[in-house]
Amino acid sequence: xxxxxxxxxxxxxxxxxxxxxxxxxxxxxxxxxxxxxxxxxxxxxxxxxxxxxxxxxxxxxxxxxxxxxxxxxxxxxxxxxxxxxxxxxxxxxxxxxxxxxxxxxxxxxxxxxxxxxxxxxxxxxxxxxxxxxxxxxxxxxxxxxxxxxxxxxxxxxxxxxxxxxxxxxxxxxxxxxxxxxxxxxxxxxxxxxxxxxxxxxxxxxxxxxxxxxxxxxxxxxxxxxxxxxxxxxxxxxxxxxxxxxxxxxxxxxxxxxxxxxxxxxxxxxxxxxxxxxxxxxxxxxxxxxxxxxxxxxxxxxxxxxxxxxxxxxxxxxxxxxxxxxxxxxxxxxxxxxxxxxxxxxxxxxxxxxxxxxxxxxxxxxxxxxxxxxxxxxxxxxxxxxxxxxxxxxxxxxxxxxxxxxxxxxxxxxxxxxxxxxxxxxxxxxxxxxxxxxxxxxxxxxxxxxxxxxxxxxxxxxxxxxxxxxxxxxxxxxxxxxxxxxxxxxxxxxxxxxxxxxxxxx
Length: 505
Description:
CATH superfamily of the largest domain: Alpha/Beta hydrolase fold, catalytic domain
Helix content: 25-40%
Number of domains: 2
Order of helices and strands: EHHHHEEEEHEHHEHEHHHEHEHHHEEEE
Distance between the termini: 27 Å
CATH architecture of the largest domain: 3-Layer(aba) Sandwich
Largest sheet: 9 strands, mixed
Radius of gyration: 28 Å
Oligomer: single chain
Shape: elongated
Number of helices: 15
CATH class of the largest domain: Alpha Beta
């Protein structure tokens, strides 16, 4: 039946996604009715999951390389245009950014470490370390090593140093970049949820994250000994997210090893541990492409999907890995390159890590795809504990006043429309309002929903007040509980909602 809202004194409804805890109260009073459950407590969460899953784009049904490449090209461009470089970020992409090399310090017998800094966005400096072999001859592989959420150590994390050192000892150029909000860049202004402030200003908050990586690749490939055919990216956790994101969108990356860094949006709907920070679930990404498609975009380039069996943080292998393989492997097979897509599940320790077992899996990828003609290449880790540096030893000077996510948002906000720009005349103002409302509805994807009301129970309380409980079905997708109190002679209608549920009213 359809709900006809009467002229009640109070209509108390909850539009949040959880019910409050049911408490005890005397029978027949207002509080008892407000606390009576109207829907199953799990229903809102299930509806959210079903809604999200239904809106994540599925893998396309393609049967040829040409069909896939046409789709991948369009999806990649949509991600760039609608997600990464929206608003002012398009100008940042085209801006000239500086690279400044500073001091060089000794590493081990085979390499030294060059300290440098570069701008991801004009004025936003990223500290980095280039592990450079002392003997370089011809073109050699280059590796962009990205951070995870290691706020304390950042680029100085032991497991990351060990990876870079092992790459340098094998004759590779290894770039160790700091991540926004971590290590040297740990600050309130670079806290990852600050990127939402840029989004609120109509500019992509994801852009500084992406540009930090792409400009890191730029400076690596500008090295006179860089081999553009052997370009790798690897990282753990948030670094795993960075790895798949840049590796899927930037076709210069020829080998990718994301470690415990992501899963499909469909997977995330069922496993809240995988939701990630704002950069990992950026505004509108799932409208353009799921991480399943991004994984498949790696084809036919060598890709190692590394996950941990008992990951206590996120992206545990049992639920995260299979959907990605199911999506990507058929595309690699279209290219007759199934062997280029590999997976590795760490069991010891099996927790959230990029320790020796996972690092050696990466070295095996180097052996098979970068050094397949070198019989002397070994995938065994080279011991380097004595060569690890302290955080202070790896400190890279960054100019005072370097831009942060917050300061960038403040600057972008200066270009937002001012009240003085709103028309003053009645007719002009009416037209302006109509236009802006239309634009806002389009931006927010506002829909007009049909509501179907289903009465669940009814009764009364003292004072000649009738009570009824309703389930409001909104657009066939959402179920909202409501309680209606109607006195004998109502004089008006009041709608009452509460963030903490009907019981709090």
